[in-house]
C-alpha cells in the first residue's frame, strides 16, 4: 500500500472487514460457539454453513449485537464488542432473521422507510433509499400493499431489501432461502450476487440450501458443534473430509453438498 502523501512514513490503515476474534458463547453447559475467528470484507460474499445446531444463528447474534460473548468483534479496525444492535446498525452492521420479522400494519414502502429512519437516515434520505430498494428488488408494483399479507417469497425479498436501507457496510442474512422453491431460490441467487457491487457491502449468508450457497459465495466458513471445521472457497470446502463427515448425519444436505 502506498504511504499517505505528506506523512513521510507508512501509516497502518485499519483492515476493512467485519471480524470476530476468539468468539465463544456458552449457554448453561452448552458451548454454542467456541473460539471462532471469522472475517468478511466489503464486496465479498461469505457463506457461513454447518449442520443444525452448529452455532450459526448464535454467531449472527454475536456479529449484530444480540448476544453476549467472550472474545471480540471488530468493524473496520474498531472494537465494537458489547455494542447494542441499534448502535451497530447505525454504523452499518445489519441482519435479517431466520423468521421474517416485518412491521405489521405497514405497507411495503413504509417497512423500508421505517427501517431507514430507524438507522438514523433523515426523512428525505429514507425516501431516496426506499425508492432505490423498491426498484432494485422489483417491489415497486406492490409498494402500497400491506407487508404482512404478502406471499411468502415476496415477504422474504422485502426482509432482505429492508436490511439494505442506507447502504450498510456488512449484512448477515440468516437463511434467506428457507422455504423458497428452486425457481425462487435461483432468483434470490441473482439478486444477492448483485448486492456487493450495487451496495459495496460485505455479505455473510447462512444457508442450508447448498445449491444456492455453492454458487453464491466467494468463500465459505464451516462450523460444527460451535467450532470452525473448515474455511476456503466452495470447491475446497465441499471436498474437505471434515465437512463431508459433519454433513453425513443429514442425508439431504450431504447429497446437496456432493452434487450442488
Ligand atoms: N438462548 C439459548 N439458550 C440455550 N441454548 C441455546 C440458545 N440459543 C441457541 N442455543 C443452542 O446453541 C446451539 C447452537 O444454536 P444455533 O441456533 O446457533 O444453531 P444454528 O447453527 O443456527 O442451527 P439451525 O441450522 O438449526 O438454525 C444449539 O444447540 C442450540 O440449541
Ligand atoms: Mg440458525
UniProtKB/TrEMBL annotation:
Q: A single Gene Ontology molecular function, please?
A: ATP binding
According to the entry, every stretch annotated as the ABC transporter domain falls at 18-250
Swiss-Prot/TrEMBL keywords: ATP-binding, Nucleotide-binding, Transport
Which residue positions does the secretion signal occupy? none
Q: Which Pfam families match?
A: ABC_tran, BCA_ABC_TP_C
Q: Which PROSITE patterns match?
A: ABC_TRANSPORTER_2 (PS50893)
This protein's name: ABC transporter ATP-binding protein
Look up and give the organism this protein is from: Pseudonocardia oceani
Q: Where is the organism placed in the taxonomic lineage, from the top?
A: Bacteria, Bacillati, Actinomycetota, Actinomycetes, Pseudonocardiales
Amino acid at each position: 500500500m502506498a504511504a499517505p502523501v505528506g506523512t513521510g512514513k507508512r501509516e497502518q490503515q485499519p483492515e476493512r472487514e467485519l471480524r470476530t476474534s476468539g468468539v465463544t458463547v456458552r449457554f448453561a453447559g452448552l458451548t454454542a460457539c467456541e473460539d471462532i475467528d471469522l472475517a468478511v470484507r466489503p464486496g465479498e460474499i461469505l457463506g457461513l454453513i454447518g449442520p443444525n445446531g452448529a452455532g450459526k444463528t448464535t454467531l449472527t447474534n454475536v456479529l449484530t449485537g444480540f448476544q453476549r460473548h467472550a472474545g471480540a468483534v471488530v468493524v473496520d479496525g474498531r472494537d465494537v464488542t458489547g455494542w447494542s444492535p441499534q448502535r451497530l446498525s447505525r454504523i452499518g452492521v445489519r441482519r435479517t432473521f431466520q423468521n421474517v420479522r416485518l412491521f405489521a400494519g405497514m405497507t411495503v414502502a413504509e417497512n423500508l422507510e421505517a427501517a431507514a429512519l430507524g438507522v438514523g437516515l433523515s426523512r428525505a434520505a429514507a425516501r431516496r433509499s426506499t425508492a432505490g430498494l423498491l426498484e432494485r428488488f422489483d417491489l415497486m408494483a406492490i409498494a402500497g400493499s400491506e407487508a404482512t399479507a404478502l406471499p411468502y417469497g415476496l415477504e422474504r425479498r422485502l426482509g432482505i431489501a429492508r436490511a439494505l436501507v442506507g447502504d450498510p457496510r456488512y449484512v448477515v442474512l440468516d437463511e434467506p432461502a428457507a422455504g423458497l422453491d428452486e425457481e425462487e431460490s435461483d432468483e434470490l441467487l441473482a439478486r444477492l450476487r448483485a448486492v456487493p457491487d450495487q451496495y459495496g457491502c460485505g455479505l455473510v449468508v447462512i444457508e442450508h440450501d447448498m445449491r444456492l450457497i455453492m454458487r453464491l459465495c466467494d468463500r465459505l466458513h464451516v462450523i460444527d458443534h460451535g467450532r470452525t471445521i473448515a474455511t476456503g472457497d466452495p470447491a475446497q470446502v465441499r471436498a474437505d473430509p471434515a465437512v463431508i463427515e459433519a454433513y453425513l448425519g443429514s442425508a439431504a444436505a450431504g447429497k446437496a453438498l456432493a452434487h450442488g
